[in-house]
Design brief:
The protein is α+β, with helices and mostly antiparallel strands. The protein has two domains: 184 residues, no CATH class; 374 residues, Peptidase S8/S53 domain (Rossmann fold), CATH 3.40.50.200. 17% of the residues lie in helices and 20% in strands. It contains 13 helices and 24 strands. The strands form five sheets. The protein has an eight-stranded mixed β-sheet, with helices on both faces. It has a seven-stranded antiparallel β-sheet with strand order 1-15-16-17-12-19-10, covered by helices on one side. Helix 8 packs parallel to helix 12. The longest helix has 23 residues. The chain starts with a strand and ends in a 16-residue tail after the last helix. GO terms for molecular function: serine-type endopeptidase activity. This is Peptidase S8/S53 domain-containing protein. InterPro entries: Peptidase_S8/S53_dom_sf.
Length: 672
């Protein structure tokens, strides 16, 4: 009798973990032959940055280059062959060495959703823009940009002047300006951030680097006047990269890394070129308020390698580049589990629950602990019992670097990628980890040509294939990839999650449980809050910011946590306000149009608060490489002390006032 569910080998993958399962899944359902070379987009005339790109990425961006049309609208992509420069760009390396540090100015970079760049909060009292560089990645293409459209300060000011209205030009037609700049295009069929009242990128930029509108009287209910920032607006420049709408819609982050890296390359190149022109070494802080749940989270991801290479290749006598990211909001989402021992039929069951009415695929990553060498076959025996099925489907022993499909008759039920991910791509003998990636099709039937599956709990059985658990990679680390739907976007995703009987969401009193607790037998549940830190927040060179309540400075319940047992995950470096109080989870920020205000929350809102304070701390220092103020944020992965909290300063007090008008006020210099 034929089995109802059976695994079949589909194809082999290139070795070294170079092919992302998410990219492979997307390409399997792609029927377009449009492509352009992503590696060409990473070209730069800055030698140390070019070396960092080659060291970290090499040809790993090629799969992205073949599929970038999934993210970019057609009008944003260059048509035809790129024009060659009449004269080769001159190296900037020698010209920026030994430059005096720019003590009078700091540049704060934002890589995020679309930002309302004509907003009054980003203009000087004389009407000039404070945005020194802007890249609209999904705007109609112009030749100067690799794709999309770039503006310098002069171009932005020209737009603002062109759309001034009123007898004295006191008003700006922001809607018309954004449409003209191709930053807002309702004909694309994708959600437009600048068409909504609240925009994530605008709020992040506001919290990171905005000032009160010029010439506006401000009382208790208005934003802080520039004089209270302890830094003049003209000394606090912005450089902004607005990511494509389709990239933001895809919360699984299929293409996020390459677009973020491209954004960082352009931001760094802009600051380097400006340093060359003006003879000053400008400090740069880059805020990236984005997050994923799954990934290597050990420094081997494409993004982690790039950040490490930038840090290593940048000349030691240069101003350091600081990158700030949030800890993530998935502490209570049940997206992480640790298996200290095998899970067989006799053990307490572990389930991966797939939500109904989900129009996007769901992914689960299973990672081994580091192994000294690549196994000949998959050392982990996986058995999957689909929802609403009594029959289990075992996988193994099978070769590594393969793709296997689980079929239910003619229908694809699931796909499994078995990969060996080396610790160092240039040194295979350095060891690595085994990664299994389970991909489940959408549960909402749609296109007849595409697979869909049944929702519900899918049981997971994980045992050693032939050797002992320790030799097979135990303990195992399981992480469900992010698949939720961002407010205002119609992505259609619904978050899947892990389940086990021992996990407690609330205690006997009905209060939320925020720390992992052992059960009656003294063992921890499979599903754990530890290890839920943002997958973009694992490089040792970045600053990771958790969230706290503004009124009590206690950590918010949802802020991601590092320190997964046995996996060596780093923790957060510091916390900043992410919510006003438990019963009021928002903080005030600028809306998408001048004069508007919205409520925002989450660790992605805490990160720009830290970015602002970091930028202010970097500006007056005369010995940049030492950065004594920033050393407070360098924490060991073995540090068990609570991270420092960045309290609300007098600079931003109006954003956090509660109903009584009370707020905390402690300066950045008082961090322990």
């Amino acid at each position: 009798m034929a089995r109802q569910h059976e695994w079949t080998h589909v194809e082999s993958l290139p070795p070294g973990g170079r092919i992302s399962p998410y990219i492979h899944w997307t390409s399997a359902w792609s029927h377009s032959d449009q492509a352009f070379a992503a590696q060409d987009l990473l070209d730069t005339d800055i030698p140390w940055l070019a070396h960092a790109i080659q060291t970290a990425i090499g040809d790993a961006s090629d799969p992205w280059g073949r599929l970038l049309h999934h993210v970019l609208p057609r009008h944003a992509v260059p048509s035809g062959a790129p024009e060659s420069d009449p004269e080769p760009a001159k190296s900037t390396s020698a010209k920026v060495l030994n430059l005096p540090p720019a003590n009078d100015r700091v540049i704060l970079g934002i890589i995020d959703d679309a930002t309302a760049f004509a907003h009054e909060r980003f203009r000087l009292p004389n009407g000039r823009s404070r945005i020194d560089y802007l890249w609209l990645q999904s705007a109609r293409h112009e030749a100067a940009a690799p794709f999309g459209r770039e503006y310098d300060r002069t171009g932005i000011e020209r737009l603002i002047d062109q759309f001034r209205r009123g007898p004295m030009g006191e008003m700006i037609d922001e809607d018309g300006l954004y449409r003209h700049a191709s930053a807002l295009d309702m004909s694309l069929g994708t959600p437009q951030s600048l068409a909504r009242t609240a925009g994530h990128g605008t709020a992040v930029a506001d919290l990171a680097a905005s000032f009160g509108a010029a010439g506006t009287a401000r009382g208790r209910d208005r934003f802080t006047p520039p004089g209270e920032m302890n830094i003049a607006p003209e000394d606090f420049d912005l450089a902004i990269v607005s990511l494509p709408e389709r990239l933001i819609m895809d919360t699984s982050g299929t293409f996020a890394e390459i677009f973020m890296i491209l954004g960082m390359v352009r931001l760094i190149s802009h600051v380097e070129n400006r340093s060359q022109r003006e003879g000053k070494d400008y400090p740069l802080v880059i805020n990236i308020s984005l997050g994923l749940t799954a990934g290597p989270r050990d420094g081997t991801s494409l993004l982690d390698r790039f950040i490490a290479a930038v840090n290593a290749q940048r000349p030691s006598d240069r101003v350091p580049i600081r990158i700030v990211v949030p800890a993530g909001n998935f502490r209570q989402a049940k997206v992480h589990a640790v298996l200290d021992a095998p899970v067989d039929e006799k053990a307490s069951p572990l389930f991966w629950t797939i939500a109904p009415d989900d129009s996007t695929p769901s992914f689960l990553e299973i990672w081994s602990t580091p192994l000294p060498r690549k196994p000949e076959v998959l050392p982990i025996s996986l058995t999957l019992r689909p929802a609403q099925s009594k029959e289990a489907a075992p996988l193994g022993p099978v070769p590594l670097d393969g793709v296997f499909d689980l079929s239910s008759g003619p229908q694809l039920a699931a796909r499994c990628y078995t990969q060996w991910v080396p610790k160092r791509i240039d040194k295979p003998s350095a060891g690595g980890r085994v990664r299994l990636t389970l991909a489940v099709p959408p549960t909402l039937p749609g296109n007849p040509a595409r697979a869909y599956t049944v929702p519900g709990p899918w049981q997971l059985l994980l045992e050693p294939a032939n050797a002992s658990p320790s030799q097979s990679g135990w303990p195992l680390d399981l992480v469900v990839q992010r698949d939720d739907m961002i407010p205002g976007y119609r992505g259609g995703g619904r978050q899947s999650y892990l389940q086990d009987r021992q996990y407690m969401q609330v205690d006997a009193r009905g209060f939320t449980v925020t720390k992992d607790r052992p059960g009656p037998d003294g063992t921890l549940p499979y599903v754990r809050r530890a290890g839920t830190i943002n997958a973009f927040a694992t490089a040792p060179e970045i600053v990771v910011v958790g969230g706290c309540y503004a009124d009590t400075l206690e950590p918010v319940d949802y802020s991601g946590e590092g320190g997964s047992g046995g996996q060596g995950l780093r923790g957060i470096d510091a916390s900043a306000s992410a919510s006003m109080q438990r019963m009021r989870g928002v903080i005030r920020a600028a809306g998408s149009r001048s004069g508007s205000r919205i409520g925002v929350g989450g660790t992605s809102i805490a990160a720009p608060v830290m970015s602002r304070e970091l930028a202010k701390a970097m500006r007056p220092l005369s010995e940049r490489p030492k950065l004594s103020g920033v050393s407070l944020l360098r924490r060991s992965s073995h540090d068990t002390d609570p991270p420092p909290v960045l309290p609300i300063t007098e600079n931003l007090s109006d954003r956090y006032q509660n109903s009584s008008g009370a707020h905390k006020a402690i300066s950045f210099s008082k961090l322990p």
